[in-house]
Automatic annotation (TrEMBL):
This is ABC transporter permease. It holds the Pfam family ABC2_membrane_2. Keywords: Membrane, Transmembrane, Transmembrane helix. The keyword Membrane applies. The chain crosses the membrane at residues 34-56, 76-99, 135-155, 167-188, 200-220, 252-271.
């Protein structure tokens, strides 16, 4: 791993110097608070909704609107069915999507917009390595979110009467959550790297694409077009019902392949275009 040339500045703290040895560690250090806030917020939201499960009754389950069935609300009485809809099928995946969009937009677009990117590239680090280091830090943040959500679910597993779901199943769902965040993080990073658009524009495009894909995945069954779900990452995130069936290798492979393809295309374009244009 190529280190970025780093000259200690007067007043720079020891941790800052230590984490500034490579672009990966520097990005982690610079975004440590942002990653932590995303992880804690997502974990807190997951726990809040999971805690409502003991209060779910047959009447409550039957009152779910038909339009919500496509979002995972088709089995509200079982623990796995409830979590698949109310927790991992509703707001948590949207938070993961917005994390990817917001963080991916920071990786290249924010620096190019501010002019800091030219300063970074004045150091002995290639564009490809810069982008990959930045994206690896984004991936670390996604793993942190997944780890916090997993820890939160296991912490309330007994008190919220979720014991019927195995630790392995919870882990499989958390892994898929991280992979979902990576897909949209890769999309935002690739758009910024390939086009040089502003941070706000990249975030808007990526978040809009995420919300559209989420809606398609949820409403496709209502219009008799289930095949459309296979075009969205949300199908591969939760369509295999990991809370019931455990880790689905094919679904995870699709999410990984989509992430790799987006980063590959973004990296290729970033290495060939004139910056600032």
């Amino acid at each position: 791993m190529t280190a970025v040339s780093h000259t200690a500045q007067p007043g720079t703290s020891g941790p800052a110097r230590a984490f500034g040895r490579t672009m990966f560690t520097k990005t982690l250090f610079d975004n440590r608070r942002i990653f932590t806030v995303w992880a804690l917020a997502t974990g807190l939201l997951a726990v809040m909704y999971a805690g409502f499960y003991p209060q779910i009754t047959a009447d409550t389950a039957s009152s779910v609107p038909e339009a919500m069935r496509g979002f995972g609300f088709d089995d509200m009485t079982s623990a796995a069915g409830y979590l698949q809809g109310a927790v991992f099928g509703l707001l948590v995946p949207l938070l993961a999507t917005f994390y990817g969009a917001a963080t991916g937009a920071r990786m290249i677009s924010a620096d190019e917009e501010s002019g800091y990117l030219e300063l970074l590239l004045a150091h002995p680090i290639a564009r490809t390595r810069l982008l990959l280091h930045r994206f690896t830090a984004l991936a670390a943040g996604a793993l942190l979110i997944a780890a916090v959500v997993l820890g939160a679910m296991l912490a309330v597993r007994s008190s919220a009467k979720l014991d019927s779901i195995s630790v392995a199943a919870f882990t499989a769902q958390a892994v898929n959550l991280a992979l979902l965040a990576l897909v949209f993080g890769a999309l935002a990073t690739a758009i910024g790297a390939a086009t040089g658009k502003s941070r706000a524009t990249v975030f808007g495009i990526t978040a809009g694409a995420g919300v559209l894909a989420y809606a398609i995945n949820g409403f496709a069954p209502q219009i008799g077009a289930d095949w459309l779900r296979y075009l969205t990452p949300f199908h591969y995130y939760i369509g295999g019902e990991p809370l019931k069936n455990g880790f689905q290798l094919t679904d995870a492979a699709v999410l990984v392949a989509a992430t790799a393809a987006l980063i590959g295309l973004g990296t290729w374009r970033f290495s060939h275009r004139d910056l600032g244009r």
